[in-house]
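**Fold tokens**
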Amino acid sequence: MNKVCIGAALLGSILTFAQEKDSAQTKNIEEVIINTISKKDSDYSNKMPLKAIEDPQVLSSVSRVVLENQAIFTVDDAYRNVTGLQKMWNATSRAGDGGAFVVLRGFVSSSSMRNGLVSPVTTTIDAVNIEKLEVLKGPSGTLYGSNVASYGGLINRVTKKPYETFGGNVSLMAGSYNTYRAQADLNAPLTKDNKLLLRVNTAYTNEGSFQKTDAKNSFFAFTPTLTYNASDRLQFNVEYEMFNTRALGEQLFFYLSPALGVDNMRDLEAKGLNYKESYLGDDLYTTARVNNIFGQINYKINDHIKSSTNINNSQSYSDGFGPYFSVGLNPDSSLSVSRYDQGTRDSRKSWFQIQQNFNFDYTFGNGMRNRTVAGFDYLKTKDRSRFIYLVVPTTGSFNNPVSANGGNYTDFNGTTIGNLYENPSNIGNYDINADLNTYSGYVSNVFTPVTGLNIVLGIRYENNDFQGGDIFNDPTAPYTQSAWSPKAGLVYEIIKDKFSVFGNYQNSFKSNGYYTFNEAGETRLSNPERANQFEGGFKTNIINGKINATVSYYDIKANNYLTNTGKFVNNRAVQTETGEIHSKGAELEVNAYLVKGFSLIGGIAYNDSKDVSTGLRPATSGSYWLGNFNASYQFVDGSLKGLGFGIGGNFASDNKILNNLENDRVTVTTFTLPKYFVMNANAFYDAKKFRIGVKVDNFTNEHYWIGYSTANPQKLINALGTVTYKF
């Protein structure tokens, strides 16, 4: 708490000496707050500019200003501001699948898009170049395809763009658990005519964890952007993202079950599992790199037709350790912890994409308008993942298991495990060596026959051409599989630009390849999984745009899942493709500028997901109830102009990370993570040339767990102070 006091003292000192502020700003503070809080218009939800009030799809967005006020510097932490989103797993940095996982509408999702193109980041995602974070709710296969879109929603990172004046800022941050950070945002016109523009965002972070403050996890981001406005019709954009990471993964506890004598995490803590203990030694790092290159040519053919040509290449790499844990019982019934490793060695995965879009916008007759996007997309996914693990714990190298309390955990370290990996007989591995070519064409149309009525129709045709290869060391034959993905929507603005009623049908799909369908070991190509959503609700944008709210009810049915029969042949599970998930729920999201200087963002979401074959909620569906809010007050005039305060919180109900029907088809086995309510607070002072701020996250010191069929303890109380110089 000393760092909190220092930050508060610094804030008070600067306020004492800040007698005047330059009121000549590019935008009035109040206008900035209103646009930040309530403006939810998007260029990406339908691959065309649409106002939120006329869009039949539900969209949540988080602005850069919100992140600055809350002193948030990662996308993973920004998720706290998205209604109906629950984080399940922080980034492990493994190539291919190492990014953070979340739940949306009962289905697993991750941040997989940047500016509408496939661009997964498998490390913790630095937010230094984020202008806005968008979350499109529901299946979005029609415009975004099957490879990265979840049935529950799509996460899209909208990046900062260059502008025509010189400017920028430099920030220094420091806080709990040996957290230190430096970041910079520099914008500069490179030519006198302002046609060539450069913007560079970069950041370096070093931090420990609440369990291991000397961990020295390091994160480096470098994200330059170049824009060339050749004419009023032709524009070229080039962006680069580099994220380099050397870090320990969070403590993941697997294989939790009632066999431990308890069926929930709160009782397991009471039984002896130490929330604050680090069960690993030194140097069990994973080194990871992400390199994304994005090129775009925008051409205005005429006043009604625009072309956008996009080329994107994303690469992920990892090498290092992946420690994880399980909990067991000692002979005296006290708890023990077993320690394992699943690392990666020179593991790589890449995505190369070419996408061409044509946008048409015509008005005719008396108030009639038609907007269309038509495009085609090529995506090549190249997977060279290599995972290794210790076949058997080697006696004498480190003690396993150890007591959950008071044990010596330092012997589980990088030197010990590295030496074990030096002996090939200790190593097991499962590799992926496979290529997938995906070819797609799509069209989406927004027709406005009369003012206030929008009819949306769209369809996609996608062909997945798997080139064959090894999947987890299993030779897999090539296959080709195609699918259609339609969508439809209707919006009627009962009060123009203020109140609308909407409904949508959305679809998505996924190719699962071959499966073993009988005990003779025969295989066949599975049919595509399919998800169909029906949704309806209301949107408001009232009091001059100061209150934006959405309430909706959705019903998603996803079928053709591959499910295990409980039988095996040649170590392969015998499966059927009769699995079905039924997910339905309601969401309310409000973004409001209530009175002068006071704003609120928040919402509540309820989800009821069911595995139709068992009648049980899937263990990866997250909590039934989720709630979030952030209330902020900022002085917009007077001697305290620029001073702001905020308080927020996140609620999640109980989360069953184990929920299985046993072989007798009667007994249900569960393990539950308890509900939580985490509170955060912040204060800042924003002047013309400088900005200072302080935040305290989880200030009630809540013990809370998240999990993706696992239990992962999260940060206790932590504080961060920020000083920014603007130029």
